Amino acid sequence: MTSELHRSTLPFAALEQDLRDRVDGEVRFDPGSRAAYSTDASNYRQVPIGVVVPRTPEAAVAAVAVCHERDVPVLSRGGGTSLAGQCCNTAVVLDWTKYCHRVLSVDADAGTVQVEPGIALDVLNNKLDPDGLMFGPKPSTHVSCTIGGMIGNNSCGSTAQAYGKTVDSVRRLEVLTHDGLRMWVGATDDDEFDRIVAAGGRRAEIYRGLRRLRDSYADEIRARYPRIPRRVSGYNLDSLLPENGFHVAGLLTGSESTLVTVLRAELDLVAVPAAETLVVAGFGDIVEAADAVPLVLEHDPAALEGIDHRLVTLEHSKRLAEKALAELPEGSAWLLARFTGDSTDESDERARAMIAHLERDRSASTRVLDDPALEKKVWAAREAGLGATAYPPDGPETHEGWEDAAVPPERLGDYLRDFRDLLDRYDYGTASLYGHFGHGCVHTRIPFDLRTAPGVARYRRFVEEAAHLVVGYGGSLSGEHGDGQSRGELLPIMFGDRLVTAFGELKNLFDPGNRMNPGKIVAPYRLDENLRQGSAYLPLEPATRFGFPDDDHRFSRAAARCVGVGKCRGHESGVMCPSYRATGEEEHSTRGRARLLFEMLNGEVITDGWRSEAVRDALDLCLACKGCLSDCPVNVDMATYKAEFLFHHYRGRVRPRAHYSMGWLPVLARVASAAPSVVNAAAHARGLSPLLARAGGIDPRRTLPRFARQRFTQWWRRREPPPPHRVHGPVVLWPDTFTDNFEPDIARDAVTVLEAAGFAVEVPEEFACCGLTWISTGQLAVAQKVLTRTLRLLAPVLRSGTPVVVLEPSCAAVFRSDLPELMPGNEDARRLAAQTFTLGELLQARVPDWRPPHTLGMSALIQPHCHQHAVMGYRDDATVLDHAGVDTTVLDAGCCGLAGNFGFEAGHYEVSVACAEDKLLPAIRAADPGTTILADGFSCRTQIRDLLPSVTPQHAAQLLAAAVRRGSDT
User: For residue 548, is pLDDT > 60?
Assistant: First the structure.
């Protein structure tokens, strides 16, 4: 245990020990865990005292009891995606997501479900889907937000247009106060109220106080609470009104962990719509679109969203949903109206009626999107708004802080006119405007300067003026993101001092010691304190090997890039983040690792910089799959960050054994090629193989790949030259280490295909390497030397513009992505990046009309390599296979789990296999007999062969070559 750990936990050592003794769960007071939970998706940062991961709700009860005995604050946290600062505090954080995610019961007839608070929304809806049911509200963070977090925040999303806010779907809650009262709460009629009061005790005290509070402030509540669909600011005192059934669960919904801890929830469900139709309407600008909202609402859409040209332009620049956005009708702003029905005819008819009305009374162009896949992508483009607008390429970074106001929908157009004027007056006019327009809720990210004192002061003045503006329109400071710290200080503007006093009285009823998430909503921190940046922000600015061109060439900017929305904590689709899916640990998510790197440079919690063992341990299970580079909304590149960290962490020190055995594989493979049969025999001998594995830091359960008897480059040098006539000119076939030494047949097949397509194939005469294995193990100085030699060897090719085909996707990704960042300013590096192609990319780019002479007529299940998914994409390769008569199914199965050296290294086997078993292996097992398994990545093929020995995965070049050869035979 380091002295750093002692320093960070010494004041709470007794608390930590009590929690360990009494709580069935994981208790973490180490710097790494505290760093991972230091912020949420907001502008704020507060380092927690410690983190408790309870295995059951009863374990959470025990944890809160310990905290109460020691007078320590508690923060109950869901997915940690809050945008207002309510999910970070100097408190003991309860993280429910790892264990407390059980569905306790489903009553399909009644349409209800009981759940634990840690279950993610998408996971819950997947479990409910067989019954044709779902939980109605669906925020854009649905892949990672939890039911407990949604209750704490009173979340909404686009579907709230049809199903209301979370409060409208909460039937009952089991809750716990800081002082230990545990009870189920819900709607309370007079008879039940009398029984509760007659029983006496703490519960009776609370209920009597709630009745007094309601009676004292009822008129004020009715007068000051705006009657709009999206009033989320403040406590739900209106739930106590007689007309709302004295609904205590409704009262506690949206209380942001400031009153109670939610242990279990009983929720109302809705039927999954039988049919949906999406209409997109284009307008001249976003205000015109807002003006049309009342007309569209007359047709009762199930969802009504608005997006502006700025958002669409930014998403185009980031290549988000490009095909979908190309389908938008003419305009500079758009409304997306979704209609549902019991049949497609019904939903289409409702859509057509709206279109006729809109085109008659408004100047709008419209389009019906009847392709479900395209509709899903358009909706995903809307949900990607936060990521697309966070780091615009043509301006400063943007922030939340006034991203969530809501006004009466019928006044939305006028409000947006005034709000745009306000943005312009403060020089924030580049902000994109979008949101849930059917409910009058406007989202935006604004280019606040939160790093200087004048910038922070300007931010304060703006939000104060904006608060008065929205209240003047009869609106709410928050339409779904809650108050937290961003808006807690502004609540008197909206509710007046008297109702804010009522909020304080409510807080005192449930939490008289102010130990539940203190400083949020009631007696709030100032909106300009606890800033993650702030005018005193001064991170370390270390010299780095990578250039980080998208982050002003500063590692501190890269480490701060994460905006916390938690897409990396999802389980549904994409590659990101395989280690989180395997472990369920925050610090094994892209977001958690980014937080640790941020804190490492901040130097307060993690004080030993590049030598930090906490950061090293968090990065250890990063597979360096690069999935986050494409899947993360703000393109965090954790594989690059990991490589940079490992370089500095081990600089001048002995490295793990695997860094030598796996990192220097290209050199070792050259040595082995002198006597491959002897090496293979030794590496697979019963007694010797485990010893060699341990000596190399390799898990002995792994089967070491066998070296080929003849390398591809050896075959090439002895090959008879082909006929000289090649109509499409030269192409260099890159002999990567894996293909050259282990599976040379693939390269020979690629030669067959390229020559059949009319190319003159060339192969480098000297040994060269992309440096991948040195990059992935953080040996960046060596990688730079290797790449310098490679660029020198390829100089004539690069100057002539000759394409370079790379068969191993991870090596192609190095040339396309890592090389320009490792050697910024090197023109040859840029040339090689531009001239690198996969086999499919080259064929589509240079000979798009070429077809192999024989059509295969077969089915293939394709596992794209993670680096190809992230950097190049698989579209061209799939198209080429389609042209060859291959019926392709491209899996969305995430990372295979081997990930180069990762899955071979000792200590990684279980996580590696868990990644494969998540989706990939089940998909292969479920494939029809006779289906060919395609995996262009050496790691993917190795993992499949290792875990499913009866399966023989192939490279696309092998199928295309088979089509060429069969055509030649006929």
Answer: yes
Q: What is the largest CA-CA distance in the chain?
A: 100
**Residue 512, class by beta-carbon neighbours within 10 Å (0-12 exposed, 13-18 middle, 19+ buried)?**
exposed
Determine the pLDDT at residue 329: 93
φ/ψ region of 894 (left if φ > 0, alpha if ψ in -120 to 50, else beta) reads left
Q: Would you say 618 and 641 are in contact if contact means Cβ atoms under 8 Å apart?
A: no
Report residue 318's pLDDT band, with 50, 70 and 90 as the boundaries. Answer: low
107 phi and psi angles, rounded to 5 deg: -110, 95
| Buried/exposed 894-915: b ≥16 CB within 10 Å, e otherwise | bbbbbbbbbbbbbebbebbbeb
User: Average of pLDDT values for 521-540?
Assistant: 97
Residue 242, class by beta-carbon neighbours within 10 Å (0-12 exposed, 13-18 middle, 19+ buried)? exposed
Q: Return d(Cα 92, Cα 611) in angstroms, integer.
A: 27
The residue count for the chain:
970
Q: Could you tell me which residues are beta bridge partners of residue 399?
A: 446
pLDDT digits 0-9 by tens, 590-648: 999 999 999 999 999 999 999 999 999 999 999 999 999 999 989 999 999 999 999 99
Residue 174 in contact with residue 108, Cβ under 8 Å? no
Confidence of residue 8 (pLDDT cuts 50, 70, 90): very low
Confidence band of 63 (pLDDT split at 50, 70, 90): very high
pLDDT at 653: 96
Q: Calculate the average pLDDT of the chain.
A: 95
Res. 581: pLDDT tops 50? yes
Amino acid identity at 328: L
- Vertex 762, ends 759 and 763: CA angle to 5°? 145
Q: Return all residues near 303 (Cβ < 8 A) that are at least 6 apart.
A: 158, 159, 161, 162, 336, 337, 338, 436, 438
Q: Is 326 exposed, middle or buried (0-12, 13-18, 19+ CB in 10 A)?
A: exposed
Is there a contact between 763 and 740 (Cβ–Cβ < 8 Å)? Answer: no
What is the rounded CA–CA span in Å between residue 405 and residue 475?
7
Q: How far apart are CA 473 and CA 475, in angstroms?
A: 5
Characterize 134-158 residue by residue with b for buried, 16 or more Cβ atoms within 10 angstroms of its Cβ, and e for exposed.
Answer: bbbbbbbbbbbbbbbbbbbbbbbbb
Residue corresponding to tokens 């006004």:
407
Whether pLDDT at 494 is above 60: yes
| DSSP state for residue 531 in the 8-state scheme | B
Strand 441-443 to strand 434-436: parallel, antiparallel, or no bridges (unpaired)? Answer: antiparallel
Model confidence at 313, pLDDT cuts 50, 70, 90, reads: confident
Residues 6+ apart with CB under 8 A from 12: 29, 49, 50, 72
List the alpha helices (DSSP H) in 395-443: 412-425
Neighbours of 718 (CB within 10 A): 8
Query: What is the structure's pLDDT at 387?
Result: 79
Band of pLDDT at residue 3, cut at 50, 70 and 90: very low
DSSP 614-669: HHHHHHHT-----HHHHHSTT---HHHHHHHHHHHHTTTSPPPHHHHHTTTHHHHH
Which helix (H) or strand (E) segment holds residue 728: the answer is none
- Packing angle of the helix pair 909-918, 938-947 (nearest 10 deg): 90
Checking if the pLDDT of 321 tops 80, the result is no
Long-range pairs for 844-849: beta carbons < 8 A, 24 or more residues apart: 844/876, 844/879, 844/880, 845/803, 845/876, 846/728, 846/759, 846/803, 847/728, 847/757, 847/758
Q: Is the pLDDT of residue 956 over 60?
A: yes
Q: Give the DSSP H/E element, type plus range, for residue 450.
A: none
Q: What pLDDT is attached to residue 7?
A: 41
- Is 866 in a helix, a strand, or coil? helix
Q: Are 172 and 272 in contact (CB under 8 A)?
A: no
3-state secondary structure of 542: coil
* Total-model pTM: 0.95
